Amino acid sequence: MTSIRALHQQLVKKERSAVEIAQEALERIQSVEPKVHSFLHVTAEKALEQAKQIDAKIAAGEAIGLLAGIPVGIKDNMCTQGIPTTCASRILQNFVPPYESTVTQKLLDAGAVTVGKTNLDEFAMGGSTETSAYQLTYNPWDVSRVPGGSSGGSAAAVAAGECTVSLGSDTGGSIRQPASFCGIVGMKPTYGLVSRYGLVAFASSLDQIGPFSRSVEDTAILLGAIAGHDPKDSTSLNVEIPDYTQFLKPDLKGKKIGVIKETFGEGLDVEVGAAVETAIQQLQSLGAEVVEISCPRFRYGIAAYYIIAPSEASANLARYDGVKYGARIPDADNLMEMYTRTRAEGFGAEVKRRIMIGTYTLSAGYYDAYYLKAQKVRTLIKQDFEAAFKQVDALVCPTVPTTAFKAGDKSADPLSMYLVDLMTIPVNLAGLPGMSVPCGFDAAGMPIGLQIIGGVLREDNVLQVGYAYEQATDWHTRSPKL
Amino acid sequence: MIDREQVQKVALLARLALEDAEIDTFTTQLNDILGYFEQLGELDTTDVEPTTRAIEVVNITRHDQRVSMSDREEILQGAPDRDGDFFKVPKIINE
């Protein structure tokens, strides 16, 4: 798979045109989609149109940016003007946004070629992309397994070579977990680094958009293109955005890395544990000082998250009322019936379950016991991380306790699906940057991911650790046979 | 713990018309999930401040200026039902 920089070189040296690159991606989509099903909508015409514009610029001798002419996939919970945005939900089946999200606008401005909108768990709620109302997406490494979720379509598309990079969103692990399952790089930036304007809200205090790619360098390039202050998002951080590629150095001399002790306990798959331990030894041989770090409240993250996220979701999803956009049942007698039946038929089981949990935990009499308690536990988890980052530059642990499971394995038991997020959730609760990089394969040939976590706005450390590790290993160079 | 009747009440608050079978399933599943939450009781949070946002930003203001977003017709076209420039809904009060 060709990197952003290599494609850029081909374009500026006029070895290939942007149209040829777009056509190659579209042909790949045609050939592998029947097996993988990453995309909900492929926007072939639009992609070729965008590519033509880049070719015209090159022909006119204009300078083009690194992302110009690069095929990208967009998770279908980011609003794209004039292109359906369904969130993989029936309730938004006919929704065509009248505006563009900030991230996709930035990509359009950078000349990126958007090949389509990718599948996800409905409203990004799930860890396997199986709650999509439209289709199942399969793992390119073994099509009987899930790609992870919720950004499973974006991860599978990059792993299958259907686009060079893609965007996902991560509320409790929805970028890092599918990146781990699909053997690619996936990063959730610091909360507020990337604008959420136009990202369909799930849990607003946790949601963050980030890149998927085949290499850490491509993630650094894409992150630089989408990060930055946006007045349209009141939680957007007003900070200087560096050139993230300057942090890509091949060694880790002088870096101190902490291993989160509590992540190596019960429930961790033996092969995953072994691969991550080997990776940690490699970090050491790259010059890093490795120490053990305790985050004693880490394991309470899941319980706190599954109160906070559904609570926020129950409020955010109250807007789907069948009035201003989206689906509506046609035969309601009165307004109340229209609301309740439109929502009952428009939402799938997992979304309804989370709306129910959130409505309950926010309801009178239970607020203190659940929501307030969870927010206080969130503070404790944050404090564990703050203490850790006084001692180290980055933390590492497995991204997921297991490799990708078989489709259908966990979909009947919601709680077992929630436990998959054990290692990724605390990072969202604390708003920190986290990235998964490939660090091995299990005996079944399924990819394993190493999670690298940085302090607030310390994407530099995360990228440096990830890049140095990647340069010393060749896991990222393997591709699934489809 | 949550019983069937409470699940029905929550469904009404959430504006979800659940079928009987769904109410049964949710009663069992919500009990499992709420049971899992009980572990939070192991942590003493007496003097702990709640965290509402991961990264705190304060006093975010903007100028009180009108900005037109997009074409009114484009927005109205997305409506399930309309009457001219209005969104149309079923009657609110039964006769």
TrEMBL record, chain A:
PROSITE patterns named in the record: AMIDASES (PS00571)
Function: Allows the formation of correctly charged Gln-tRNA(Gln) through the transamidation of misacylated Glu-tRNA(Gln) in organisms which lack glutaminyl-tRNA synthetase. The reaction takes place in the presence of glutamine and ATP through an activated gamma-phospho-Glu-tRNA(Gln).
Subunit structure, interactors included: Heterotrimer of A, B and C subunits.
Organism encoding this protein: Oscillatoriales cyanobacterium SpSt-418
Protein name: Glutamyl-tRNA(Gln) amidotransferase subunit A
Keywords: ATP-binding, Ligase, Nucleotide-binding, Protein biosynthesis, Transferase
E.C. no: 6.3.5.7
Transmembrane segments: none
Pfam families: Amidase
GO BP, one annotated term: translation
PANTHER family: GLUTAMYL-TRNA(GLN) AMIDOTRANSFERASE SUBUNIT A, TRANSAMIDASE
Record field: catalytic activity: L-glutamyl-tRNA(Gln) + L-glutamine + ATP + H2O = L-glutaminyl-tRNA(Gln) + L-glutamate + ADP + phosphate + H(+)
GO molecular function, one term: transferase activity
Active site: K75, S150, S174
Segments forming domain Amidase: 20-463
NCBIfam families per UniProt: gatA (TIGR00132)
Enzyme class: ligase
Taxon lineage: Bacteria, Bacillati, Cyanobacteriota, Cyanophyceae, Oscillatoriophycideae
UniProtKB/TrEMBL annotation, chain B:
Superkingdom in the source lineage: Bacteria
Subunit description: Heterotrimer of A, B and C subunits.
Keyword Ligase found: yes
Function: Allows the formation of correctly charged Asn-tRNA(Asn) or Gln-tRNA(Gln) through the transamidation of misacylated Asp-tRNA(Asn) or Glu-tRNA(Gln) in organisms which lack either or both of asparaginyl-tRNA or glutaminyl-tRNA synthetases. The reaction takes place in the presence of glutamine and ATP through an activated phospho-Asp-tRNA(Asn) or phospho-Glu-tRNA(Gln).
Keyword hit for Plastid: no
Stated name of the protein: Aspartyl/glutamyl-tRNA(Asn/Gln) amidotransferase subunit C
Enzyme Commission number(s): 6.3.5.-
NCBIfam families: gatC
Protein family membership: Belongs to the GatC family.
Organism whose genome encodes this protein: Oscillatoriales cyanobacterium SpSt-418
GO molecular function (one): glutaminyl-tRNA synthase (glutamine-hydrolyzing) activity
Gene Ontology biological-process annotations: glutaminyl-tRNAGln biosynthesis via transamidation; regulation of translational fidelity; translation
Catalytic activity: L-glutamyl-tRNA(Gln) + L-glutamine + ATP + H2O = L-glutaminyl-tRNA(Gln) + L-glutamate + ADP + phosphate + H(+); L-aspartyl-tRNA(Asn) + L-glutamine + ATP + H2O = L-asparaginyl-tRNA(Asn) + L-glutamate + ADP + phosphate + 2 H(+)
UniProt KW keywords: ATP-binding, Ligase, Nucleotide-binding, Protein biosynthesis, Transferase
InterPro entries: Asp/Glu-ADT_sf_sub_c, GatC
